[in-house]
Structure formats: structure tokens, C-alpha cells
Amino acid sequence: MEERLIYLDNNATTKIDERVLEAMMPYFKQEYANPSSMYNFSKKSSNAIKEARGKVKDFLNAKDEKEIIFTSCGSESANTAIRGFLNYNDKTKKHIITSAVEHPCVLNVYRNLEKQGYKVDYIGVNSNGEINLEELKDKVKQDTALVSIMWANNETGILNPIEKISDIVKTKNPDTKLFVDGVQAAGKVPIDVQSANVDMLGISGHKFHAPKGIGALYINSKTMITPLIIGGHQERGKRAGTENTPYIVGIGKAAELACDNLQYEMTEVKRLRDKLESGIVKSIYNARVNTGAAQRVPNTTNIGFEYIEGELILLHLSDLGICASSGSACTSGSLEPSHVLRAMNVPFTAIHGSIRWSLSRFTTESEIDYVLEKLPQVIESIAKISPYQKELAQLKSLRA
Amino acid sequence: MWDYSEKVMDHYRNPRNVGSIEDADAVGLAGSLTCGDQLKIYLKIKDNIVTDAKFQTFGCGSAVASSSILTEMIIGKTVDEVRKITNKDIADELGGLPPEKMHCSVMGYEALEDALKNYKKDGYVDLDELNNVNNPQSDENKIICTCFQVTKKVIIDAIKNNNLKTVDEITNYTKAGGACGRCRGDIQKVIDEYYQNIKPEVKELTPTQWILKVNNIIETQISPELVKDGGDIELVDIKDKKVYVKLHGMCSGCKNSTMTLKLFVETTLKNALGDDIEVIEVN
User: Fold this and answer.
1) Could you tell me the CATH superfamily of domain A6-12+262-399?
2) Contact check, Cβ <8 Å, A309/B60
3) Chain segment A302-342, per-residue pLDDT in tens
4) DSSP symbols for A264-322
């Protein structure tokens, strides 16, 4: 087996940037003071948190630092926003709108709320993964408390037109709040919560080169929540618990670096992604891009390999040191393939063989070349054992 | 990442007997494209012996490994021997499979069963049997899980061959109930019906078989659980329905040991062998 590691699963998690780790280190060592304490020793910690909050504020272009709270992860951000807002809100408003392709950390919160008496509408997507805006418009009613749409999809990278969505929602009902799961957009496309007119937006540090275990939530000054974690006064009473100083410093530094690298992501990372995608489609006859021509984040491509199964592709790639992920049923331990690809009506011939490739600013050209060199053999060896030889031969002659 | 055995990895990396047999004497199919895995198996049979076997699989690593090892297991065996192979044999031969992947071994078993269903040495096809197989109205062919098209027979076979007790186990082995979950109640009914209908077979065993059977349950079901808690159990003697055991390590001298014995050891043995089992601790 090869020692090589080619990491193309950056939508799952990312490598910590060395500069992030470096910024965090003093707060693991000498600067261990509780930032809420009264003595001078705690000054450095509390200032570091203030600085980090400022960096996240700039990253999302929030109006005020007070609108940023730190959490432990993307799931906590989503839970705090959704449940925190609904718990505070007028309880007679029982209607929520979300999309069928949200991340489980959001989707399962709504499934849970349905059991508590909320009515949830799940807006569908077209075959490119784009949300049906007409359907959304139609569903917003007087009792719609919350609309919840992700900025970018984790499996396909599809970008939702958040500004337009906000416009549609607020025009029909100015009291309806908009929560955006921004986890997969952060660091890949510009996020501007003010111009997009978003009420709440969650992000997760480890998706943009901070460590795991830190997230942030933007809540604009006009939106109130009941905290999920009750205790001390931290995070302006919105999230109790002693501040996780080193990790907060980490997400702050990662946010700063993400701002600096955004242009690179949108040009160079995109170029490598496009090279990978077109290279695969060109050299492998049973490959299809699952997202068509829809707007996407620059780092992601989701490609279905027809008549073969995704886990087996991943296992063979893993032997070559290549890391990617799959929407196949087998990889997750669940028995059903990706709910996102099913909502898009990706044909069953391709859904189980769908592979998500997600790059980062650390991905190199030679890594992409290596994948393009090795992948055709991998696909060929798996196709060889498929019972669908006739169908594969047909595809081959069709593409030739 | 799945915790696959070395053997599973070897078989998905280097699958044996891949392909089809043009003039096969029996062909079996299990699974479907929609469900995410499918296996087609081809057999060449001469003088009641499987002389060649080939497979084609659409599926994950453990599905390919199950198919590949199955072909190795059956080549050279008589048809009667092959008929006795269960999914558990396939999984055991692979050095075990993760619980969520047991359905891959079941798929191997189903494909084999499908291949041999209509195969008769003399070409004679039992019309009644065929009719039964193709008759969706028959109780055995009733679809329990509509999402994955799992019949009652498949569920009962899985229970029988693997000693399954819960709906979650049935899902791991057959996929039934793993999608919308609406059939979970029906699966429970199949489990209940199965265990109501079977009688403990204890009396038909010879004394040696009986001892082996008790020992097997202690080794596979009881000892691993106790080892997890830092203890172990040793079988000392068996006198008819009385089972004498010794406890080691963390368990011995532990105040809870009597409770452990009564509740866990006895319940496990009773579940497997009948309610008249008595467990006695010796020092």
C-alpha cells in the first residue's frame, strides 16, 4: 500500500492551518486564565476572544461583534438558532419551511420539532439540486415562524441564492425569520449576512482549517433566542459555559485566513476542481456530473459512476492513498443512499456510485494529476465485476 | 471506516472467480440496482458436483468479498453440500463481517439458493415447488418490507441461520425495515411467530452433542460479554439440565456475581436451550 495521502474530502473536515495552531498554542499553555476573571492575568484571554469575535464578524460582514456567539460545532449553532428562536417566539406560529436537501444536523431538528406539533414543509429541488423558489414563495404564510435554507450543500456544493430567498420570504411575511446553515459556504464563497438579509447563520470551524470542536452563530440584533445551555453570563447570556479560549482564537484566526484566501479558493481551487471534473468525465465513460450547470462552491464536485458501487470505489482509492466520500448507502451504515441525490432524482444507475470530491487551498496540481492518472483503472477494475456488462457496453459505445 | 477483516480486504482487492459462464447449469440472482447491491452467480454442475462457479457483483467491499469467497467455498462440493451453506458460513469463512454488513452474506446465500431452486440433476422440475416459488400469494413469499422487497421467507431464514432476536438485527442481516421503517411492527410479528413455533430440540441430542451445544453458547454468547467487563466463565460440568460453571477474574468475589450468573448466564442459556436449565456456581 502507498504512503501517499491525497485528501479530497474537505467538506467532511479540513487540515488545521499551521498558523491557526500557532495562534492557539499560548492559550493552551501560559494564558490559561478564565476570561471572565477580574485580575490582569485574564486580560490577554478576554482580549483574544474579543479579537476573534471581531474577525468572525468581519468574515461574515455582521454589523456588530455582539451578533456573534461561539458554540462547539455546526450542529450546536443550528440547534441554538432553530430551537432557541422557536422557544422564544410566539408559540402560536407553528409553521416552518426548510429544504429537502439540508444537512442532517438541521433536518433531524425539524423531524424532531414535527413531533412537538410544528408543521414543516420541505421544499424540493430540481435535477441540478437547485431549490424551487416558486414553491418556497407559495408556502410562506402568516403563521410561518422560520425559514431555514442552507447556503451551500455539503454533498453537491450547490449554492442557494440566499439574497433572493430572503427577499421572497420577507416580502411575503416580514415577521418570518431566516436561518441559514452556512457551514459549507464559509471560506469558499463570500458571505455577507447584511446584504443577504439573513437573521441567523451558523458556521463550523473545522470546515475552514480551524480544529474540530468550535463553531459560531450569527444572530442579528433584531432576533431573540432562548439559550439552549443555561448557566453563566457568557456569550451575552446566549450560551453559558466558560469560553473555550484556544479554540475561539483558532476559529478567529481561521476566519481571518479564510478572508485572505477567498480569492484563491474562487480562482485556483476552482481551476483544480474543474480540471478534476472535466478530466474524469473525459476519460471515464460511465461518469456523470450530478449537478449539471448549477452554481456551486468552487471546491466541490459530485460525480456518479454508473452501474458500480461507491464504497468499493472508496476502498480502492483508499488503497492508493486517495480520500473522498460517497453518497452510497453502504458507506454510511444506513441502508439508503444520500437523501440529497435522491431529492435531485439522480438515477438509480448512478446514485449508489456517486463520489464527492472536495478540494481545499492545500490541494496541489500534482495531486489532481495523480487522481486523474489512477482513477480510470480503479473504475475499470470495478466495472469488470459488475453484473451490468450489457448496460456498461451500451454506455461505452454511446460515449465513443 | 468499517472494521473489515484481512480476508474481506483480500477478497475485495483480489476477487476470485469473477465473470459469467456461458453454458451454466444454474444461475442465481439476488438484490437489485435500486437497493444498492446485486449478485449474480453462475454454476457449472457435473455428476452432482459443482465443477465451476463465477460471480458478478454490484455492491460494496463486503458484498464483493462475500460473493468471491462463496465461489471458493462451493467449487468441488456436491450439490447437497452446497445446499447446506448458510449466510453464517459465508460470514464465518470471511473471518466475520461488521453487523451492519451481514446482509451482504445473506445476499450470497440468497443468490445461491436462487441458483439451486430449480436445479435438478435429472432436469426434473417440481411444478408444485415452482408454483409455490412464483406464487406471491403464498405466506412465505409475502413481502414484509416493501422498500427493499424482502419476503417473509428471507427473514425467517435469517432468523434460523443466525439466531436473530431483534428487529434491528433483522435489518442488519436482510435490510428489511432499514428505509421507511413502516414494516418494523410486521418484522416483530415474524420474529414472534417464529419463536412461538419452534420447540427446543434438546431431547434429540446425544450427551456429547448436548455438552458441545451448551459449551458453544457459553463460548460465543456468554464469555465474550463477561470478558468485556474484565471477567470470564469456565464450564466445569454438565449433568443433564444442570450446568456447573466457575467464574474468573473481576467476576469472582464480586458482590454482583450471583446476579450476573442468575440474570445473564441463566437467561442466555434458557433463551437458547429451554426454560428448565439450571446454573450452579462452583468454587
Assistant:
1) Aspartate Aminotransferase, domain 1 (3.90.1150.10)
2) yes
3) 999 999 999 999 999 999 999 999 977 665 566 778 999 99
4) HIIIIIHHHHHHHHHHHHHH-TTEEETTTT--B-TTEEEEEETTS-HHHHHHHHHHTTE
